[in-house]
């Protein structure tokens, strides 16, 4: 399967999922304003904070082949933090324990560790592959 076909399939799946999300959102109109406020805030935080930090911190942390994976990891970590921010800013017991039954701060940290681990493995794999391609001098 070519890369072009794979991209088309991924794009079609993304559009289908966006359609499902939009239909679910329109079915439950009572919280439409809250969702739109949250989405607007997420876009503003991304454009004002996360993207500039990734662009500035990424090159300062690493050089060469590892720059791309590190920037990607910073972007994913920032997006995960942005999504988890409402729960992270309201720690403690909730009046209704079934609303947020999981330990979200713990799971957020585990996810960030998984992203960092995957990024480190990717950088190591790129380095090994690059060193194997070089002819011995």
Q: What radius of gyration results from the CA coordinates?
A: 20 Å
Uncertain parts? none
Series of H and E elements = HHHH
Please identify the structural class as seen in this structure: mainly alpha
Can you describe what's shown?
The protein has one domain. The protein has 4 helices and no strands. α2 (32-61) packs antiparallel against α3 (67-88) and α3 runs antiparallel to α4 (104-133). The radius of gyration is 20 Å and the shape is extended. The two termini are 37 Å apart. The chain is mainly α.
Secondary-structure map:
Elements: H1 3-27, H2 32-61, H3 67-88, H4 104-133
Helix pairs in contact: 2-3, 3-4
Which terms summarize this structure?
membrane, mainly alpha, extended, transmembrane helix, 137 residues
